[in-house]
Write a structure and sequence with these properties.
alpha+beta; SH3 type barrels; 117 residues; 25% strand; five-stranded antiparallel beta sheet
Length: 117
């Protein structure tokens, strides 16, 4: 019979190796799409939420979003024809109830409307 010697790794070396391998790993870049836009549109479409769409030329359109894709939204309106609006011409959009809420607060005198100070 031969004399066997147990070989145990040095724990200090193992810790150093794991720290080096962690440092070598690159931080992953964030995903290109978060699906937040899709979630927002689907939620507003399902509820037929009245929306205000402000275009790049400061024109305000009111209606609800019926449909959207990568480059456009379809806005249904009570008065006037339905519109297919390219997204690049939209400055921003928001729920119409937020506008009503802001007006109510400003008429109470509790909060000043933006830009009036």
């Amino acid at each position: 019979m031969s004399n066997r010697k147990l070989i145990r790794p040095d724990m200090g070396e193992l810790k150093k190796e794991s720290q080096v391998s962690r440092a070598v790993r690159r931080k992953q870049s964030p995903p290109e799409q978060t699906n937040a836009e899709e979630f927002y549109y689907l939620k507003q479409m399902a509820a037929k939420t009245p929306m205000v769409v402000v275009l790049n030329n400061d024109e305000e359109l009111r209606g609800w979003i019926e449909w959207y894709d990568k480059g456009a939204i379809k806005l249904n309106r009570h008065r006037g024809p339905n519109l297919l609006i390219p997204k690049h011409s939209i400055r921003y959009l928001f729920k119409e109830e937020e506008l009503r809420r802001l007006r109510r607060r400003s008429s109470d005198g509790s909060v000043e409307p933006p830009g009036e100070s």
